Amino acid sequence: MSRIFVIRHSIFAQIVVWAIITAATITFGLWVLTNATIQRTNRQALERAVGVDLAGMVDIYASGDKDELAKRIGDRLALQQRDGDVAHYLLADAQGARIAGDLIRWPGLHAGTSESADIYIDGTNRAFARSTQLAPNLRLLVAHEYRDLGLLLRQVALVFLTGGVLAMLAVALGGWTAAHRLAGRLERINAAFRQPDDAALEELARGSAGHDEIDELASHSGNALARLKRLAASHRATSDHVAHEMRTPLMHLDNRLVKALAATPDAETAARIADARTEIRGIIRMLESLLDIAASEARRGDRHGLAPVDLSALAARLGELYADSAEESGHVLQLDIEPEVTIDGEEMQLTRLITNLLDNAFKFVPPGGTVRLKLRKGPRLVVSDDGPGIPEDQRESIFEKFSRGKSCFGTEGAGLGLALCRAIAERHHLEIALAPTDGGASFTVTPEFQR
Known about the structure:
Elements: H1 2-8, H2 11-63, H3 66-79, E1 87-92, E2 98-101, E3 116-121, E4 125-135, E5 138-145, H4 150-194, H5 198-206, H6 213-262, H7 267-298, E6 307-310, H8 311-328, E7 332-337, E8 342-345, H9 347-364, E9 370-376, E10 380-385, H10 417-427, E11 430-434, E12 442-447
Parallel strand pairs: 7-9
Antiparallel strand pairs: 1-2, 1-5, 3-4, 4-5, 6-8, 9-10, 10-12, 11-12
């Protein structure tokens, strides 16, 4: 099924299909034009034959009389070949009564103007007829049947059908060969984007001996990816270094505060020291969250390092861990987990995604409220609650960094939990959204471009 999907969405496959359709359309158009030309040529030949035959009859009448003309008409009818150009005649008086010929009645053509038209012989055989006025009481009609072109047209159609099929096969083979080569060259570029390792980027930057537009695109893409990779590596190194330089003095400061608490200061001083330690730990957690968000955003769409993860087992395990804490805090945790739901991902990051959503729900739902964790194949992960919900003016910015909401305990977080959830989701080609509900909040995590 995936192979059919790729073919349907490949620009090269579409080009080949359109080339085949174009070849078939041109072939059909040529056949229609040839068929019309044969029909028109046949009618023109028939008109000339009728004109020549009629002129000959007029000459016979002019050099003889009515009886001589009637005799010659009879001779022609007796001697004509039935498998050739079949002719019909009618010599009639002014009232249309037959004097000679094989036609029974006058077809209604105006003889005085030498009118011509198609008529039917015995109601079945179509013929081209032309009339003329020989004398005030004498008129003549000459008609020739249309030749049966069925065999000729079938032969022409067979020739065009065979030629069209051969042309389409040639177009399909040539197009597929060219498309296969182009697809292989573009696949090198796509592979480098999917997994930009040094060897692939170096090979892409070199290009090939063709030096055409695709080689130029491949070279530019390789160089651009290599620069982006160096910039990303430099950014991560700088971020890690800054975080380390900030985390280390903060940890040292925390250790000094621990020693200060060990000296048994008075109650007010001890409370201030404890508050300071809480602030320090909050800053450290914020730094770690920012680094995690930056790392996830930098690897968005990167499939390198992903492995199959049993999301059902992971969600069930986390649900059991949160069930005990939910009971202690006076909450109800409901689990609805479909088995055998798997996804390619990093288990540690997916764990943080689920725990952040659960922590967010428990933080904003007052005691006695219900938190629900639901998992379906797709995958489709839903964490919902019956708490106060998200204010309307915060629904658009809830996933942005430092977007804070007031919890039921009166405390505010750093505003990085949902931002980290979104970064982790995008890293795994997932999309997190706030679903509309009548009450509470409902966060859904689904594959990108699905809801």
